[in-house]
Design a protein that fits this description.
It contains 3 helices and 6 strands. It is α/β, with parallel strands linked by helices. The protein has a domain at 2-104: Alpha-Beta Plaits, CATH 3.30.70. The model is unreliable at 2-13 (pLDDT under 50).
Length: 231
Amino acid sequence: MVNARAKGVNQLTHSVRTEIIVKGKVQKVGFRDHVQEIARNLGVKGYVENMKDGSVKIICEAEEDTLKKFIQQINIKTDLITVENVEIIKQQPATGEYEYFEIKYGPPEEEMGERLGAAFKIAVATRQDIKEMHQDLKSGITSMHHDLKSSVTTMHQDLRSSITAMHKDIKNMHSDLKESVDSMHKDMNRHFEEMAKRYDAISAELLRTREELKRAVDTLVELVKKFLEKG
C-alpha cells in the first residue's frame, strides 16, 4: 500500500526528493542490499538505513517516473523479505546532494548481528528448500518406480497375452493345415481310384476289341482259303 502525503505531488515534473518508510519483515533479511541494487539499476540516488522501530527509511532522488518504478520494485515479497507497507512521508524538489545510492550502516556490532541474522535466515530457508527438494525428488523417484513397475507389469501381461494368442493362432494354423493335408490326401486317393477304374474299363474294352479283331481276322483267313480252294 502506497500513501502519498505531500500535496502537489502530481504537479511535479522534474527530479524530486522523496522520503519513504518501509514496514514489514525488512530488517536482518538483506532488504537494504536489494534496495541499493534496484536504485543503482534505475539511476536513483540517495540512501537506505534501518530504523530502531524495525522499519527501513529511504531517501531518494530521481525523475518522478523513475521513482514510481523504484517504489514498485522495492515492494518485495520473497521467502525471507515481506514488505507490508511503503509510505511516502515527504516529497520536495531534489537537492542534488547525492552522487550515488548507498546503505547507511549502523554500529559495527549491530551490523554484524544484522548480517549474521540474515545469513542464518538464508541458511534456514536454503535448508528448507533442500529438504523440500529432497522430498520432491524422493516422491518423484517413488512415482517413477511405481510407474516403471506398472509399465513392466503391463508389458509382461501384454507379452503373455500376445504369446498366448500366437500359440492359439499356431495351433489353429496347424489344425487347418492338417485338415487341408487330409483333404488333399482324400482327394488324391479318390482321383487315383477313379483313374484306376477308368484304366480297368479301358483295359477290358481293349481286350474285347482285340478278341473281336482276332475273330474277324480268323474269319477272313478262312474265307480266303475257301476262295483259293474253289479256284
